[in-house]
Amino acid sequence: MFQNPGQGVDFSRRGNFLALVFCTLVFFTGIMLSGAEIGSIKFEQTNQYKFPEQMLRFNVQEKVGDKFDKKVLNEDIKRLYSSGYFSDVVSETSTSPDGKINIVIKVSAKPRINKIILKGNKKFKDNELMKLITLVPDVPLSDKRLKDSATALRNFYAQKGYSEAKIYPKVVNVGKGDVNVVFTINEHLRLKINDVTFEGNTVFSNWDLRHSIANQHSYLSWLSVLDIGLLNKPELENDKLRLREMYWNKGYLDFKVEKVTITADKEDPEYVNINFKLFEGKPYTITKVFITGNKHFTEAQLLPLVEGLSGTVYSQTQVNMGRDELENMYHPLGYANVMCRVIRIPDYKTHTVEVEFRMFEGRIYHVRDIKITGNKVTKEYVIRRELVIQPDDPLDKNRIEASKARLMGMGYFDNVEAVSVNTGTTGEKDLNFRVKEKRTAYFKIGAGFSDTDSLVGMVELNQSNFDLFDPENYFQGGGQRLRLQGFFGLTRMDANIDFTEPWLFGMPLRLDVNGYINNVVYDDWSERRIGAHIGLSKQIFDDFTTIGAGYRFEQVRVHNVDDDDPYLQQYKGNEYVSKLSLSISRDTRNSLTNPTSGYHLMGTAEMSPKPLGSSHNFYRLELKASQYFSFWDDIFIGHVGAKWGAVCSFDRNEPVPLYERYFLGGGDSLRGFPYRGVSPVDNNKNNIGGGSMALATCEITHPIWEFIRGAVFVDAGMVEDLAYNFNLNDLCVGAGYGLRIKVPYLNAPIKVDLAYPIVNNQQHLRSKFRIHFNMGFVW
Question: What is the C-alpha to C-alpha distance for residues 655 and 649, in angstroms, rounded to an integer?
Answer without folding.
Answer: 7
